[in-house]
Amino acid sequence: MRGLANTKKGDFRAAISDLKKARELNPNDSETTFCLAYSLACVASSEAAKKLASTAHKISPKDPYLERFFLFFYGDVCVYRQR
User: Fold this and answer.
1) DSSP secondary structure, 49-62, as one string
2) Average pLDDT of the chain?
3) Residues 6+ apart with CB under 8 A from 3
4) How much is the pTM?
5) What gap in Å lies between CA 18 and CA 72, rounded to an integer?
6) What pLDDT score does 23 carry?
7) Does 81 score more than 80 pLDDT?
8) Which CATH architecture has domain 2-82?
9) Angle between helices 12-25 and 2-9 (to 10 degrees)
10) By Cβ atoms counted within 10 A, which residue in 8, 30, 40, 41 is the most buried?
């Protein structure tokens, strides 16, 4: 998917557009949701990014890939471990 590829290479503005379209097609894809959150955070939309990161966590609460990135949004205690 182009949005994920753009996120991985650091082209966050291009990624945001693609990832928003991908989420419209599949809003329950936690990886797409998290990549959108990460891309938004990298261009300073931190409140929207936090909301999307929380949404990704709700979709896949025990996904080990996503869990380690929650620290990016929530400091040194990730949401998953607070529950």
Assistant:
1) HHHHHHHHHHHSTT
2) 79
3) 15, 17, 18, 19, 21, 22, 32, 35, 36
4) 0.76
5) 22
6) 95
7) no
8) Alpha Horseshoe (1.25)
9) 150
10) 40
